[in-house]
Design brief:
It contains 9 helices and 2 strands. It has helices spanning 7-35, 45-74, 86-113, 124-158, 165-183, 188-208, 212-230, 240-262, 266-269, and strands at 118-120, 234-236.
């Protein structure tokens, strides 16, 4: 019978693996921020195109670092760290996106009935272009690298020292600390949102064994939030508090209830 290494040794081994993965993401995001030029209009197609290109490079770098760590430090495959193939994962990504999009749309629908509608301010073509570019930018520059690192490799590395909800809690705290450091902001309201994301996305990883559901939810949430709060093609007549209610609190709460009570629908879980 093979004995597990002492706890202190397992903590040390997990710590340097987590640090290597997280530092690679930190370095990539710092470079991405320097590469994407500031622009008075975040909906500018050129700026979004640069963001997409830089995001593609960041995603590729992140996946390469994870592949090297998984193979040579852990003797694992990408599939073993939650990075299952797109062929088997796209349904989970769609499910994750719907977990956010359906309750968010319903929330804005209710707010519209109370005189706080969400309006498109430009033409249909401008709206479609901006939504598409922002979605791809968020997917490549935020959702894939962050979920691959925290809900993928970090979660797997932490399994050497903890299990289940312990793993979810530790990676969520690391995600909060990372978000505060990279944003250079420790506002409790913002950090509580990142904590909710870390716990919720960690739970999705635990029940699916894959990062794709959290990638879908992350992409939908950040795309919707950025469009409503930062881009001129969409205008919300209510307050920031109401927008965050519809963008964050309601969808996250509904998603938690749906996932904990019903699990993953059979069609979306099918490979």
């Amino acid at each position: 019978m093979t004995r597990r290494p002492p706890f202190a040794r397992r903590v040390g081994a997990a710590s340097w693996r987590v640090a290597a993965a997280v530092c690679s993401l930190w370095a990539g995001l710092v470079i991405l921020t320097a590469v994407v030029p500031p622009h008075s209009d975040p909906s500018d197609a050129g700026t979004l195109a640069i963001r997409i290109g830089a995001g593609a490079a960041l995603s590729a770098l992140t996946l390469l670092v994870i592949a090297v760590l998984a193979r040579y430090a852990d003797g694992l495959r990408l599939n073993d760290v939650g990075l299952t193939s797109l062929r088997s994962g796209w349904r989970l990504a769609v499910w994750g996106a719907l977990l956010w999009a359906v309750p968010a749309a319903a929330s804005f629908g209710v707010l519209a009935l109370f005189g706080r509608p969400l309006r498109a301010t430009g033409s249909a073509g401008e709206l479609v272009q901006t939504v598409g570019l922002v979605l791809v930018a968020v997917l490549l520059a935020e959702a894939i690298p962050e979920e691959a690192i925290f809900r993928g490799y970090v979660t797997t590395a932490l399994d050497a020292v903890t299990r289940g909800w312990g793993t979810i809690a530790v990676q969520a705290v690391l995600f909060v600390l990372f978000a505060g450091a990279i944003r250079q902001s420790w506002d409790p309201t913002d950090l509580s949102l990142f904590l909710a994301m870390g716990v919720g996305f960690g739970y999705l990883r635990m029940i699916t064994g894959s990062v794709w559901a959290s990638i879908g939810f992350h992409t939908a949430f950040q795309t919707g939030s950025q469009l409503v709060l930062s881009h001129s093609v969409i205008e919300f007549s209510g307050s920031v508090g109401l927008s965050m209610l519809a963008l964050g609190m309601v969808p996250f709460t509904v998603a938690a209830i749906v996932v904990s009570s019903a699990g993953v629908p059979r069609w979306f879980a099918r490979s």
